Amino acid sequence: MTDAAEPDPETSVAARLLALQHIDTQADQLRVKRERLSEREQLAAQEKQMTAWEQRSAQVATRLDKLTSAIEQAEARNAELSSSRDRLEAQMKTVIAPREAEALMHEIETINVQRDELDDTELAALEEQSALDDERVAHLASEGALREALGQADEALKRRCADIDVELEQLGEERVVAAGDLDESIVRRYESVRSSAGVAVAELKGHRCEGCHLDLSAAEVDTAKDESVAAGYTDCPQCGRLLIV
Ligand SMILES: [Zn+2]
Q1: 3 assigned to some structural domain
Q2: Domain extent for 77
Q3: Rounded to the nearest whole angstrom, what is the distance from the C-alpha of residue 24 to the centroid of ligand 1?
Q4: Helix axis angle, 143-179 relative to 98-141, nearest 10°?
Q5: Residue 132 belongs to a domain with what CATH number?
Q6: Looking at the structure, do residues 31 and 81 belong to the same domain, yes or no?
């Protein structure tokens, strides 16, 4: 990086501006890299999986609760129907009139139909409950691996971010050295152009500003050269960047 033969030392205004530009560009790139780390996507994917896992857990738990109460209700209703039937069957033994017996038979038959329907409902609920219980066991067994993968993805992202932060911190220190004794007003101007144009410093190559890629007239080039000798840089008349001649 250093060029011992360079007559213009690294402490010239032009060299300092270019160094600032270089460091700030590197810092910008690092910040973009930090935002676009593939680890970020991997973590998001793991978080999505974990969320899906938790949602399914909640769904299964809710459904199992419903099934349990449906089974309990069916059993309670079944018990009621059984005692009603027992009562009717006991009545049957004391009835003599055929019409009364027929009516009781009909009631008993109705209860039997209701009981059959309840049995079918309860059986279906029991089957679903059993399948869901199996699913829950498998589901719970997958939790550990998912949480571990999530933790690892989180750690991986944090590590990469921490590495980049160290680089950014180093650049910050280099920036202080690079800025050195640059005049406060020049630094302010640099910051202001940087915030509007992105790249604040451009070199003049021939007649062309490397910032805006427009040519300066011969007179403008002469003025630029004169101003550069005095101040170390000049302003590009086209784009306003700090022009290094
Ligand atoms: Zn320009």
Answers
A1: no
A2: 38-141
A3: 19
A4: 40
A5: 1.10.287.1490
A6: no
- Whether 136 and 231 map to the same domain: the answer is no
Q: Phi and psi of 209, rounded to 5°? A: -80, 125
Intervals of the chain under pLDDT 50: 1-7
179 Cα: distance to centroid of ligand 1 (angstroms): 22
CA distances from 89 to 5, 98, 118 (A): 118, 15, 20
Note the pLDDT tens digit of each residue in 78-91: 999 999 999 999 99
Instruction: Check residue 9 and give its pLDDT.
Output: 61
- Residues β-bridged to residue 1: none
C-alpha span between 39 and 47 (Å, rounded) = 12
H or E stretch at 24: helix 13-35
d(CA 148, ligand 1 centre) in Å: 53
Query: How far, in Å, from the CA of 9 to the mean position of ligand 1?
Result: 25
**What is the C-alpha to C-alpha distance for residues 49 and 40, in angstroms, rounded to an integer?**
14
Work out how many domains the chain is built from and give that number: 2
- Residue pair 224/243 in contact by the 8 Å Cβ criterion: yes
CA of 205 to the centre of ligand 1 (A): 11
Residue 4 CA, ligand 1 centroid: distance in Å: 30
Cα(236) to centroid(ligand 1), Å:
5
Q: Does residue 48 share a domain with residue 137?
A: yes
Write the burial class of residue 64 (CB in 10 Å: 0-12 exposed, 13-18 middle, 19+ buried): middle
* C-alpha 167 to ligand 1 mean position (Å): 31
